[in-house]
Structure formats: structure tokens, C-alpha cells
């Protein structure tokens, strides 16, 4: 499960004062695990100018020398033409490297050694790292590292990154190579070299492997093969897969909800002993802003952190086990009839964590049509942000014993809608690209791997909680309490604070901080001013808040699908980030206790309305960050606009059919 990478690292220069090592390899060879083991938890997302994707970078000490490591996308062919392969080629052309770690699966060296030979042939300084050496030994594959090193003309290291074996020797070898080499100039003409270079012939591969690698004449029936005979069975394979997904949801439900209750108790306790006393003497408007708006919204979101942690840990186990690749293989024949392929199914599952890396993952498809169609269906994947919304609503209106089934039904609907979209649009995005996927052996990830993957996803979730979610919650509260006189009057004290605090802050800092803020947030300020102009001209009386008037404005559209005015404002702010939907409910109902919010929702809407609301939230426009990613990956404004309009229309139609049909059946 790829992390949700949001641009946050520094813009990195082609020049560096430290030695640079890039980590390159095929998918499913443990490249990211190796990178994490070498760098620890120090990696950050770097914005590399001229490179179309954010890359993980970390600086570490090797034998007293500072070394910069960069994790490149997984590729099958350095001379290929997929988006990821072009990213790697572009990186090498623009940024000098001292060493390239070519990471391969030691158990599949006969099929993967071509990548190392390409690095050597193109004049890029390389070192071969054969990962999963323990698995190769288990399969009785014997590798003579010294002879292989001699034939390849590059250093070779045998490691098992998962169990941290051989890494000390590998790092010493990396350090030794770096100490022997001077700064390497990037090959500016790499593209020309690739075009002029002939493909690596099978005879060259055989020559390298001869007397260096001994493969068993017949691989004996392994645990993976025995398990695949059951899990890849043409009849029972898919039912077993969906049963495993249901059991995962059941576990998340049973463990996550009780832990959520603990988080609720903590936030309520903290408000009682700290927030309420500290804000007791403030004007009503400012106190309401801090307690009911800022803290109440964030406390509601924070209460879901334990559940999100459990979800991401479970996803890390299933993904790293190799089972998702099997799911792609089983679904390929079905996906082909829908104009997609098995990789599209894998990306949908990846979207369970976050839609952004799922959209970015479509670049591995060489066909532009298949890539566009895959990107179009990715926002329908039920991401973790929507998960928090659905768990909150389901827990409020449905019996807890039925909760996992209701949640599973939403995941199934997200798949069905994606499949239906593929079928409807395959004529517009026709593709004949063949589907190729390598099935890795089954592996159970170590606790360290699970922790690193889960913590990485949680870190992104928390970063969003302090960014988009905070801004959204504050915006919802202001709309619910403005204009003056609708709830908490601003009064002269509030106006003085609103004007005086920025003025004093600017005087103290000399204006630099204010200037920097305006430079960074200028566009959003303009959007805010336009929003205020729109809100002040909404129909309604002056004693109604902007939120009420906005709900009344959209009522003719949302009433037929059962979404009340109170939830309309939450959906509108959900365009920014779906996590805001949960946080905004606290401000809309002026309650900081999540249990009280759920009780209020249960009294105001029916289960049919709640399910219709969840369907609309599942299918309508994705968050702003996902839209920006779609625009970046598709490089087509018209397609991005179409994806937004299509999602909105589809969400309304599906919710309308369900709501009206369910009410019709209920009234029979």
C-alpha cells in the first residue's frame, strides 16, 4: 500500500554537497523495505524539479560520511517507456549520482538480471543488491557472489532486508565504493543512449549466470504453490478473497470501535480540565470558535485515529503478504471485459488507503487510454478518509452487529460502480495493452514492517488533520455562526481581536511572516473573498446563518436523495478533504462529544437517509488533493473536469435510485 505522499519536502537541487545513492529495482523485490532498513524513519518526500513524481529521500551516516539516498519508482525495464520508467530515466539525466543500488529478487535472478546489465551498458555506476537471499537458499538456489561480481563488473551483495541480514556488510560495501569514486556526472544523453543501445540478448544473460548461479533442475512444490492451488482456484478463489476482506473489516470493527471510545473519553476529559477553564473568560464568539469550532471538530477527527491505525496495520499485512497480486491475477479476465486489467483492480484496492497513490500508480500502464480509464475509476475506491465518515454514521444508526456488513456493502458498491464505469467508458478509452504481473511468494511481514507502513499512513492522516481538516472545521463553524446575530455575536471585542491580532503580529515580526503567509495563501484568500461575496448574496433572511441559507439553496437538489440541510454543508466542505465531513458535524450540531453528535444524528435522520448520504459521499467528487493529482497525471484539464462532473452526476443518480426505491419498498 503506497503512502499518500503530499508535497511537503524541500525542492531539491541537482547539485549536492553529499554523495548520492539512488535505489532502483523491480516491483515486489523488497526495494522499499531495503530503503527503510538503511534509512530508518528519516525519509521525507522530496520535490525534485523536472521529475513528475515525489521521491522519498533520506540522509544517513555511513562510516562517518553523510550519504543521500533516493528511492526511485519500481520499474521492470530501464529502457522502457511507461511513466515510471520515464521518471527514472529523467532522474538519471538531470541528477548526478555516485551509485545506483540495483535491487533484485535473488530467487528470480535469472529473470531479473537484465536490469543490472542495462545499468552497466548505459554507463551508470551500479551495485547489485540481491534481496531475499533467505528465500533463494530455501529454494536451493546457489549464488557465487564473488564470481558474479567479477563477471558483472560491479559490486554484489546478498541480503535479506526483511530480517535485516547482510545489511551491515552491504552498507560497508556501499561506503567502500563511494570512497573509491569521485563525483559522477549525470548522463545528459541517456535518452539517446537508450535509443541507440541494442536490447540485452539472452546469450549475454546466460553468460553472466553460467558458473555463478546454480538453479535447481526442478523446483519442488513449495508452500506458495500449495496455497495458490486453493486461493487461485477458478471457482472458490474470489469468494475466499472477499471473505478475507470481510474478516478484515470485522477485525477493524471489533478492535477499532472500542479503542475509539477510549479516545472519545480522553478528548472529553481534556476539554473539561483544560479547554473549558482556559476559555471561560473569553468573549462568546471567540470562546465558541475555540471550543465548539476548532477543538470540537478536531476532537471528533482525533477520536478515529485508533481505528485508522488498526485499518492501516491490517492493510499492511494483507498487501505485504502478496495476496493482492493474486487478487489482480484472478480479476484480470473480468476486468478485461470491462476495458480494464488486473492492475486496475490492484490500484482500486490500493485506493482503500488513499486515492492519491492509486491515481499515481496508473502511470505503470503504457497505454494512454487504459491509464485514463483507470484514473477515472480510482476516486470510487473507498479511501480511509471516507472510512472515518462511514464508521461514524454506521455506528450512530445501525446495530453494531450489522456494522461490518453495512461497511462491506459500501466497499462492494465502490467496486461495482468502478466496474460499471469501465464497461460504459471502454469504447471511449479502448486499449489492447497486455496484462503482465509477477506473483511474489507469500510472506508474512515482520512487526517492524507493519509498524513502518502503518505509522507512515497515520502520519499522513495526522498531517491532513492539522491542515485541510483544521481549515475546514473552522470554515464550517464560521458559516454556522455568521453573519452577526445568528448564533454567537462577534461584538466589538471579537472585531478588535480579529483586526488587532494580525496587526500586532505583523508589527512584532516586521511584517515578514505576514508577507510569507500572504504569498503562500494568496490564492485561498481570493477564494475566501469570492465565497463571502457568494454567501452574502444567497437567498434567505438576515437572521439565518450562511450554513442554513446554503442548505436551503441546495435543498431542491438534495431533498430527492434524502440528504437534510444539516448534512449539506458537511458535503460541501468534503470537497476539500473527506475527513472534514466528520469534523464539521461537531460544529454543525454545536457538540464536542462524538457520542452526543451520533445520538443527535440518529434522532434527525433515518437509516435509509444515512445510507443514501454515505452513497453520495462515496461517489461524488474526490478531495482537492486527489483532483490535483488527477490533473498532474492526466495532464488534461478537460479530463479532470469531466471526472468531477461524472462523479457528481453518478453519485446523485445512485443515491436517488436507492433512496426512492428503499422508501417505496418500506411503504408497501
Quick rundown:
The chain is 62% helix and 7% strand. With 668 residues, the protein is an alpha/beta fold. The protein is globular, with a radius of gyration of 27 Å.
Your description of this structure?
There is one protein chain. The protein is α/β, with parallel strands linked by helices and 668 residues long. 62% of the residues lie in helices and 7% in strands. It has 29 helices and nine strands. The strands form two sheets. It has a seven-stranded mixed β-sheet with strand order 2-3-4-1-5-6-8, with helices on both faces. It has a two-stranded antiparallel sheet with strand order 7-9. α24 (565-573) packs antiparallel against α25. The model is unreliable at 1-11, 44-52 and 484-499 (pLDDT under 50).
Observed structural traits:
668 residues, 9 strands, alpha/beta, disordered N terminus
Residue windows where pLDDT falls under 50 for at least 5 positions: 1-11, 44-52, 484-499
Rg, nearest Å: 27 Å
Amino- and carboxy-terminal Cα gap: 46 Å
Q: Percent of residues in beta strands?
A: 5-15%
Largest sheet: 7 strands, mixed
Task: Describe the global form.
Answer: globular
Helix content: 55-70%
How are strands sequenced across the largest beta sheet? 2-3-4-1-5-6-8
**Number of alpha- plus pi-helical segments:** 29
Mean pLDDT: 77
Based on DSSP secondary structure assignment, what is the total number of beta strands?
A: 9
Structural class: alpha/beta
Amino acid at each position: 500500500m503506497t503512502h499518500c505522499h503530499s508535497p511537503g519536502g524541500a525542492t531539491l537541487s541537482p547539485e549536492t554537497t553529499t554523495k548520492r545513492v539512488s535505489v532502483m529495482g523491480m516491483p515486489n523485490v523488497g526495494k522499499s523495505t531495503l530503503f527503510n532498513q538503511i534509512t530508518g524513519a528519516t525519509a521525507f518526500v522530496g520535490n525534485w524539479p523536472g521529475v513528475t513524481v515525489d521521491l522519498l529521500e533520506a540522509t544517513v551516516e555511513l562510516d562517518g560520511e553523510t550519504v543521500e539516498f533516493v528511492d526511485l519508482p519500481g520499474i521492470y525495464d530501464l529502457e522502457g517507456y511507461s511513466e515510471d520508467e520515464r521518471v527514472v530515466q529523467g532522474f538519471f539525466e538531470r541528477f548526478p549520482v555516485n551509485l545506483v543500488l540495483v535491487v533484485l529478487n535473488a530467487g528470480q535472478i535469472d529473470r531479473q538480471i537484465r536490469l543490472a546489465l542495462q545499468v552497466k551498458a548505459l554507463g551508470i555506476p551500479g551495485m547489485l543488491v540481491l534481496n531475499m537471499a533467505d528465500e533463494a537458499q530455501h529454494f536451493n538456489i546457489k549464488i557465487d557472489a564473488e564470481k558474479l561480481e567479477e563477471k558483472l563488473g560491479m559490486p554484489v551483495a546478498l541480503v535479506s532486508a526483511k530480517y535485516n541480514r547482510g545489511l551491515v556488510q552491504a552498507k560497508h560495501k556501499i561506503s567502500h565504493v563511494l570512497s573509491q569514486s569521485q563525483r559522477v556526472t549525470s548522463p545528459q544523453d541517456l535518452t539517446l543512449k537508450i535509443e541507440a543501445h541494442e536490447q540485452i540478448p539472452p546469450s549475454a544473460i546466460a553468460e553472466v549466470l553460467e558458473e555463478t548461479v546454480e538453479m535447481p533442475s526442478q523446483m519442488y512444490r513449495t508452500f506458495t504453490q500449495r496455497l495458490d492451488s486453493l486461493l487461485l482456484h477458478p471457482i472458490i478463489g474470489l469468494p475466499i478473497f472477499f471473505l478475507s476482506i470481510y474478516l478484515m473489516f470485522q477485525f477493524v470493527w471489533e478492535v477499532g470501535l472500542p479503542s475509539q471510545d477510549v479516545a472519545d473519553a480522553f478528548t472529553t476529559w481534556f476539554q473539561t480540565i483544560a479547554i473549558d477553564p482556559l476559555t471561560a473568560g473569553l468573549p462568546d464568539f471567540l470562546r465558541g470558535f475555540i471550543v465548539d469550532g476548532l477543538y470540537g471538530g478536531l476532537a471528533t477527527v482525533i477520536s478515529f485515529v485508533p481505528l485508522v491505525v488498526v485499518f492501516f496495520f491490517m492493510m499492511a499485512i494483507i498487501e505485504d503478504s502478496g495476496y493482492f497480486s493474486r487478487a489482480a491475477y484472478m480479476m484480470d479476465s473480468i476486468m478485461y471485459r470491462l476495458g480494464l486489467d488486473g492492475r486496475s483492480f490492484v490500484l482500486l484496492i490500493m485506493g482503500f488507503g488513499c486515492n492519491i497513490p492509486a491515481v499515481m500508480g496508473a502511470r505503470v500502464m503504457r497505454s494512454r487510454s487504459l491509464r485514463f480509464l483507470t484514473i477515472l475509476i480510482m476516486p470510487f475506491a473507498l479511501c480511509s478518509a471516507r472510512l472515518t465518515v462511514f464508521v461514524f454514521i454506521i455506528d450512530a444508526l445501525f446495530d453494531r452487529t450489522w456494522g461490518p456488513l453495512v461497511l462491506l456493502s459500501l466497499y462492494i458498491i465502490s467496486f461495482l460502480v468502478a466496474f460499471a464505469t469501465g464497461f460504459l467508458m471502454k469504447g471511449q478509452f479502448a486499449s489492447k495493452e497486455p496484462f503482465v504481473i509477477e506473483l511474489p511468494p507469500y510472506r508474512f511481514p515482520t512487526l517492524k514492517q507493519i509498524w513502518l507502513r502503518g505509522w507512515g499512513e497515520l502520519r499522513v492522516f495526522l498531517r491532513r488533520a492539522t491542515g485541510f481538516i483544521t481549515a475546514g472545521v473552522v470554515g464550517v463553524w464560521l458559516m454556522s455562526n455568521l453573519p452577526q446575530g445568528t448564533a454567537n455575536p462577534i461584538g466589538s471585542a471579537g472585531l478588535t481581536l480579529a483586526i488587532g491580532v494580525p496587526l500586532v503580529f505583523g508589527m512584532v515580526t516586521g511584517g515578514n511572516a505576514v508577507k510569507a503567509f500572504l504569498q503562500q495563501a494568496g490564492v485561498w484568500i481570493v477564494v475566501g473573498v469570492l465565497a463571502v461575496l457568494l454567501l452574502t448574496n444567497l437567498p434567505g433572511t438576515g437572521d439565518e446563518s450562511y450554513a442554513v441559507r446554503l442548505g436551503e439553496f441546495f435543498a431542491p437538489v438534495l431533498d430527492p436523495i434524502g440528504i437534510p440541510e444539516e448534512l449539506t454543508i458537511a458535503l460541501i466542505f468534503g470537497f476539500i478533504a473527506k475527513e472534514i465531513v466528520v469534523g464539521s458535524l461537531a460544529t454543525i450540531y454545536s457538540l464536542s462529544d462524538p457520542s452526543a453528535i451520533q445520538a443527535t444524528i440518529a434522532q434527525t435522520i433515518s437509516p435509509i437517509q444515512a445510507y443514501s448520504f454515505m452513497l453520495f459521499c462515496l461517489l461524488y467528487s474526490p478531495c482537492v488533493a486527489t483532483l490535483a493529482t488527477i490533473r498532474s497525471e492526466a495532464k488534461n484539464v478537460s479530463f479532470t473536469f469531466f471526472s468531477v462532473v461524472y462523479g457528481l452526476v453518478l453519485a446523485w443518480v445512485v443515491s436517488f435510485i436507492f433512496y426512492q426505491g428503499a422508501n417505496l419498498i418500506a411503504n408497501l
